[in-house]
Design a protein that fits this description.
Blueprint lengths: L3 E4 L11 E6 L11 E4 L3 E3 L5 H7 L9 E3 L5 H4 L2 H11 L5 E6 L2 H12 L3 H8 L2 E6 L4 E4 L2 E7 L9 E7 L2 E5 L7 H8 L1 E5 L5 E4 L1
Helix pairs in contact: 3-5
């Protein structure tokens, strides 16, 4: 289960807020949506099955999303990327979206298109402005208006799996992804003010 941590060296006195919306926090067998978090309506962490429709059901505009971070390549964390891409296509939205993701993500998304929508990946990808930014190992990610660091986490025998430490508006948040307690979570927790497992639709303002 993912844990969200608000880190001590964030500047909490600034007037600019960070809005964190926990879109889903369920596991595969749960009735709630799988884990996905939306930060300031423009940074989406993980794109599990069905999340695009759920984001719109909650009243958010998927067209405002500028960046996506993928924690790992289990299906309940990235299988809705094709539907996100189709959604941008139907909106005729060609604003740049960067998908920061583990190495091999783009090929797996192409495979999902091949299975579900044969021949459409190149057509849709050409019509919209989605850029896959893949990394291999712990990395610094310089996004639009934010900086993130990917950190290895332990997720059973599955590798690689990552958490993220994200700095936005001079505030810092840690997101564990699916993991058991491990070194990355220990280091983050020692710098943590508060943390939450969250519930569907739960909002945090910092």
């Amino acid at each position: 289960m993912a844990v969200i941590m608000l880190l001590k060296n964030s500047n909490f006195l600034r007037k600019i807020n960070m809005e964190i919306n926990i879109i889903g926090s369920g596991s595969i067998g749960a009735t709630d949506m799988s884990a996905s978090t939306l930060i300031d309506k423009k940074i989406l962490i993980d794109v599990p099955n069905g999340i695009v429709k759920h984001i719109k059901k909650l009243g958010y505009n998927t067209g405002e999303i500028e960046s996506i971070l993928i924690t790992h390549l289990h299906g309940d964390h990235f299988f809705d990327i094709p539907f996100f891409m189709f959604d941008r296509y139907f909106q005729k939205n060609d604003n740049l979206v960067c998908i920061y993701c583990p190495k091999g993500t783009k090929e797996k998304v192409k495979l999902l298109f091949d299975i579900g929508f044969p021949g459409d990946f190149d057509r849709i990808n050409h019509a919209i402005n989605v850029k896959f930014v893949e990394f291999d190992g712990e990395s610094k990610i310089e996004g639009k208006d934010f900086v993130a660091y990917s950190k290895y986490v332990k997720h059973g025998n599955f590798e690689p799996a990552y958490g993220y430490i994200i700095t936005l508006n001079n505030k810092k948040i840690g997101f564990s992804g699916d993991s058991k307690f491990c070194n990355a979570r220990y280091v983050a927790c020692t710098k943590c003010i508060t943390c939450t497992y969250g519930n569907r639709g739960y909002k945090i303002f910092v």
